[in-house]
Task: inverse folding
């Protein structure tokens, strides 16, 4: 059945039955091998009540800290029902790569050696059993924590070769982004196959709310998950332009220190409409230390990091933080 295939393959377009107050977007991040250019590319759909439904493609130039938003007629959007493959006008996106043809950016990139989140009957994706919970404001999926990127882009007609580049792909869908959240990602650490994604957010539910979090750490070929649904613990504080977070699950401990960089404004969904605003940097740095049984497994600084601190994050922060 199609709905079961979609449930256990979150990367596939989830919104065919949605008629109003709905968004869905995929987030591609890629940095070339020379690390001279970092982009985030966000294709998606916006289905609301007040404004015309439309598809969109956002571009975040992380190097210059500028952004672009291109709107398309909703009829220009199409999606495969059996696998992750979408098309917006002449632009194509999948787990295998992208073909982009926009006024400021065009070209093709191939994706290889992806590192997806493993699934099981009780855990269809990074959200674990929360994937089965209906009427949540926002659902989250990870397509690949780390992969290689090759090809060539033309940015403002300047050629940017992508030989031995590194990328990351995630997605969100639902009605709105949370009212406040902290999100960070990097897979540019001194050692290959290291990638961290972490998100702490205000989650409304049944007339109340809770602070939920999801953190995935790829260490070589192993992905460790800290999340609300697997009874992990989370502590977070903000000190100026720095976010300090700590995650614990039984014998595993992850400390993260995210230092903000210059960012640009992106649009975000509110009841399906892309009327929200969030500042995202691709110039942040993530310092991490990961321990198992008290032994340091990995320590390093991730560059070209994405970082968002949005809304009134005071309710997400810990009153006490043990360093």
Result:
């Amino acid at each position: 059945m199609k709905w079961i295939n979609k449930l256990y393959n979150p990367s596939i377009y989830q919104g065919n039955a949605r008629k109003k107050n709905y968004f869905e977007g995929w987030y591609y991040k890629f940095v070339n091998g020379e690390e001279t250019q970092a982009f985030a590319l966000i294709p998606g759909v916006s289905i609301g009540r007040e404004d015309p439904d439309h598809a969109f493609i956002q571009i975040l130039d992380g190097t210059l800290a500028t952004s672009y938003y291109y709107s398309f007629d909703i009829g220009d959007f199409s999606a495969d029902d059996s696998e992750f493959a979408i098309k917006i006008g002449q632009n194509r996106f999948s787990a295998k790569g992208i073909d982009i043809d926009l006024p400021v950016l065009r070209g093709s990139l191939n994706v290889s050696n992806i590192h997806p989140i493993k699934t099981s009957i009780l855990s269809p994706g990074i959200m674990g059993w929360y994937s089965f919970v209906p009427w949540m404001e926002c659902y989250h999926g990870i397509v690949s924590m780390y992969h290689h990127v090759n090809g060539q882009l033309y940015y403002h007609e300047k050629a940017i070769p992508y030989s031995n580049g590194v990328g990351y792909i995630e997605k969100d869908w639902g009605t709105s982004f949370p009212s406040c959240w902290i999100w960070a990602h990097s897979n540019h650490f001194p050692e290959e196959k290291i990638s961290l994604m972490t998100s702490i957010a205000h989650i409304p539910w049944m007339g109340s709310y809770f602070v939920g979090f999801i953190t995935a750490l790829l260490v070589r070929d192993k992905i460790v998950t800290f999340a609300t649904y697997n009874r992990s613990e989370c502590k977070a504080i903000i000190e100026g332009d720095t976010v300090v977070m700590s995650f614990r699950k039984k014998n595993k401990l992850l400390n993260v220190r995210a230092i903000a960089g210059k960012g640009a404004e992106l649009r975000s969904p509110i009841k399906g409409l892309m009327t929200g605003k969030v500042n995202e940097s691709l110039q942040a740095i993530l310092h991490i230390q990961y321990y198992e049984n008290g032994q340091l497994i990995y320590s390093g600084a991730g560059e070209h990091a994405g970082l968002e601190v949005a809304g009134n994050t005071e309710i997400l922060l810990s009153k006490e933080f043990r360093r």
Notes: The helical segments are 2-7. The chain has a mean pLDDT of 94. The chain has one helix and 21 strands.
